[in-house]
Design a protein that fits this description.
Blueprint lengths: L1 H30 L8 H28 L5 H34 L3
Family: Belongs to the FliE family.
Subcellular location: Bacterial flagellum basal body
Keywords: Bacterial flagellum, Cell projection, Cilium, Flagellum
Length: 109
């Protein structure tokens, strides 16, 4: 009998501790303010600005390599690949946007 009551008390203590832990986690998660969502136009503008920055960096590295200021071919090739990949991704996004726009225009109301 004594063993059973000790086991039951230990079990209840563990359950109370677990409940307190879960309650505090839920309270903390409810207190957090939701992260603000950016506008689509802001996200698109930032992405295009990033692509433009990579293109500018590429041109600058090519000019420096041409003039002999730097001889690091490895970084130049990485810069070229980054710029190329971002342009390809931008073109793919542009194509998707255009096809979405055309799809919307074909809708009948």
């Amino acid at each position: 009998m004594v063993v059973k009551s000790v086991a039951i008390n230990a079990y209840q203590s563990a359950m109370d501790a677990r409940r307190t832990s879960v309650d505090s986690k839920v309270t903390q998660s409810l207190k957090k303010a939701p992260t603000p969502v950016k506008d689509f136009s802001d996200t698109l503008s930032e992405s295009i600005k990033g692509v433009n920055d990579l293109q500018t960096e590429k041109k600058q590295m090519i000019q420096e390599f041409d003039s002999g200021k730097t001889q690091n071919v490895h970084e130049l090739m990485i810069s070229l690949q980054k710029a190329s990949l971002t342009m390809q991704m931008t073109g793919a996004v542009r194509s998707k946007l255009m096809s979405s726009y055309q799809e919307i225009m074909r809708m009948t109301f």
